[in-house]
Amino acid sequence: MNAPERHEMFTLPEGARKIDMLKDPKMVNCIQFNIQREDHTLANILRYKILQHPQVLFAAYRMPHPLEYYVELKVQTTARTTPVDVVKEAIESLMLEYGNIRSAFDNELFRMDASVGDGPRTVGRMGAGYGGFGSLDTSTAEFGVARDMGERGDRGDDVDIDF
Amino acid sequence: MIAEVPTMAIDMVLFNENTSVLADEFFAHRLGLVPLVSTSVDQFKYSRDCTCGEYCKECSVEFTLHVKCTEPGTRVVHSSELISSNKDVVPVVDDNGRGVILLKLSKGQEINVHCVAKKGVAKEHAKWSPCAAVGFEYDPHNNLKHLDYWFEKGIKEEWPLSKNAEEETENDPSAPFDYNAEPTTFYFNVETIGSLDPQAVVIKATRVLQEKLGALQMALEEDQHPDTNANMDEADPWV
């Protein structure tokens, strides 16, 4: 009877802040981010990305309680940067990465359609050695990725997707 | 992909008549699990975000089902007999064109229900999940030694390689182990229940993740200038 509504786990209540930043009282240059209405889906990828940053000394996250719908993300960096900047960079880089995955995936679907014809889409093996429409399609694939990066201000330094 | 890609599913059921052997709540639950073609799900709003009171065309699709068995024997009711108010959102049907079996009626039994399908995500209820099974693997040759295989005679004989192993080459066993290596290629298996293509689910999943990150980015930007909004309200005494 007093169970919380199921949609409360992903809808932000009115007036609530999406993210709270708390300075850690003991660690230098360390901030704890309390992100409302998010879970491992977001926190895990963020932590993973933040840990790849060379200036990061510590990054971890936890869900304090399964019925309290927020995650705590703690980030400590060197004095050269700030945890907030690192998180922002991580978000940008992840956005770019998902854009790249999507355009690469789209191109691959297009290529499969072209090679299969009008038949139903079958998910087959399409490794690097696939030689169907080789020259034509690699050019479109490159174009797709390059265009995506251009839109978001050329930050191709940490793209490590291998399709 | 499992939890946060939105689809349509029946969420409210009004029973006008139910003389079948199934209890109302039992049958309502079955209706909720019926897969609906959700390719046009982006055109719908979430009911809770919609301006309407309960439900409307912009946030829901209505279905009716009215079947009475008048002949002796068993009348099988399939999901394809649900009549939709929107031609884009209909029950998923298999090759025989009938869909899943909803219930069976014997002579004299009748079912007459009115259903409302809404947009939702599987975080709220699993009926909204477009996926049946999603799995992934990386490093099929175990080059990174993230796995320690149990074996009696030899790993090679007892552990068959997955199909994805064709995509990569095995490291030279005599070469020194590269302890800095990280997995870079991930192989996903996506199986859906028919409401969306697996291809569409992958693409939508990347969008969902980007939206989540975008919301966080905006929240962070706002936090950088926490006084901006407050000052604007105070600075304008004519409001």
UniProtKB/TrEMBL annotation, chain A:
One of its GO terms (cellular component) is RNA polymerase II, core complex. PROSITE patterns: RNA_POL_L_13KD (PS01154). CDD domains: RNAP_II_RPB11. GO terms for molecular function: DNA binding; DNA-directed RNA polymerase activity; protein dimerization activity. Pfam families: RNA_pol_L_2 (PF13656). The keyword Transcription applies. Residues 30-102 form the DNA-directed RNA polymerase RBP11-like dimerisation domain. It is found in: Nucleus. GO terms for biological process: transcription by RNA polymerase II. Gene3D superfamilies: RNA polymerase, RBP11-like subunit. Keywords: DNA-directed RNA polymerase, Nucleus, Transcription. The keyword Nucleus applies. PANTHER family: DNA-DIRECTED RNA POLYMERASE I,II,III, DNA-DIRECTED RNA POLYMERASE II SUBUNIT RPB11. Belongs to the archaeal Rpo11/eukaryotic RPB11/RPC19 RNA polymerase subunit family. This is DNA-directed RNA polymerase II core subunit. It comes from Coemansia biformis. The gene is RPB11.
From TrEMBL, chain B:
Residues 220-239 are annotated as: Disordered. InterPro entries: DNA-dir_RNA_pol_insert, DNA-dir_RNA_pol_RpoA/D/Rpb3, RBP11-like, RNApol_insert_sf, Rpo3/RPB3_RNA_Pol_subunit. It is found in: Nucleus. GO terms for cellular component: RNA polymerase II, core complex. One of its GO terms (molecular function) is protein dimerization activity. Residues 1-219 form the DNA-directed RNA polymerase RpoA/D/Rpb3-type domain. GO terms for biological process: transcription by RNA polymerase II. Keywords: DNA-directed RNA polymerase, Nucleus, Transcription. NCBIfam families: PRK00783.1. Belongs to the archaeal Rpo3/eukaryotic RPB3 RNA polymerase subunit family. PANTHER family: DNA-DIRECTED RNA POLYMERASE (PTHR11800), DNA-DIRECTED RNA POLYMERASE II SUBUNIT RPB3 (PTHR11800:SF2). This is DNA-directed RNA polymerase II subunit RPB3. The gene is rpb3.
